[in-house]
Amino acid sequence: MPRAIISPSVLASDFGQLTAECKRMIKGGAEWLHMDVMDGHFVPNITMGAPVLSCVHKGVPGIFMDCHMMVAQPEKWVNDIADAGGSLYCFHLEATSDPLSLIKAIHDRNMKAGVAISPDTPSTAITDAVGEAADMLLVMTVYPGRGGQKFLDRCVPKVAELRKRFPNKDIEVDGGVGPKTIAPCAEAGSNVIVAGTAIFGAEKPEEVIATLKSAVNT
Ligand code: DX5
Ligand code: ZN
């Protein structure tokens, strides 16, 4: 299995102190920062877009921005997110009719490409060609749209199915993940762990990050 990567979701942070919050997470042991981009169409909420990511990129040297694009037209934002310093562009399979072309466009802008599936999308919707072309597969463990929701156990088997088909890919879980729910995710083969509330809501985020990381490594 690829190495453990912890990607705190900044959606749960104080947006007024965004760069400081990102620095605090990196200091606490996080490898990536998970940036939830919502457009008010694919999901009802609006969060942040390229201008905000650009400020974070400038303010936090060397940051790896794991951009989770909950947007209706993922093709539209590839250039803006690349220009803003995005490191990984993860789009929803439900939002595009041509995932292979989109992955190519993302790679052409030197970003890693991720493919996300919502709770009602089966793992088989990710074809072999798409899974092989992508760098990361994201199994949502809540319905995309907001932080702080309850972890959906029924999504975990999809992680195992994808790990079997794609042994060397990064497989990310996102939604309601924390020390109480990490065990089944890690056991199923997820190695990239997103956690918002569980990390930012903790008194000592570095301890939560270490706990999540060691769960993946065991
Ligand atoms: C949900 C977002 C998640 C969310 C995770 O739509 O994609 O990244 O912020 O937050 P928690 O860990 O609080 O569920
Ligand atoms: Zn997310």
Itemize the secondary structure elements and their pairings.
Blueprint: E1 5-8, H1 18-27, E2 33-38, H2 50-59, E3 65-70, H3 78-83, E4 88-92, H4 99-108, E5 112-117, H5 128-133, E6 136-140, H6 156-165, E7 170-174, H7 182-188, E8 192-195, H8 197-200, H9 205-217
Parallel strand pairs: 1-8, 2-3, 3-4, 4-5, 5-6, 6-7, 7-8
Helix pairs in contact: 6-7, 7-9
This protein binds D-xylitol-5-phosphate and zinc ion (ZN).
The site of D-xylitol-5-phosphate has 22 residues, from strand 2, strand 8 and helix 8.
Active site: 36, 174
Catalytic activity: D-ribulose 5-phosphate = D-xylulose 5-phosphate
InterPro entries: Aldolase_TIM, Ribul_P_3_epim, Ribul_P_3_epim-like, RibuloseP-bd_barrel
Question: Which shape, going by the Cα principal axes?
Answer: globular
CATH topology: TIM Barrel
β-strand amount: 15-25%
Number of strands: 8
Q: H/E series, N to C?
A: EHEHEHEHEHEHEHEHH
Task: Flag low-confidence runs.
Answer: none
CATH H-level superfamily title: Aldolase class I
Radius of gyration of CA atoms, rounded to a whole number: 16 Å
The SS-based structural class is alpha/beta
Q: What CATH architecture would you give?
A: Alpha-Beta Barrel
Average pLDDT over all residues: 98
Q: Please give the count of helices.
A: 9
Give the total of domains. 1
Taking the sheet with the most strands, its summary is:
8 strands, parallel
Ligand list: D-xylitol-5-phosphate, zinc ion
Distance between the termini: 11 Å
**Which strand order does the major sheet show?**
1-8-7-6-5-4-3-2
Binding site for substrate: 9, 68, 145-148, 176, 196-197
Enzyme class: isomerase
Catalytic activity: D-ribulose 5-phosphate = D-xylulose 5-phosphate
EC number: 5.1.3.1
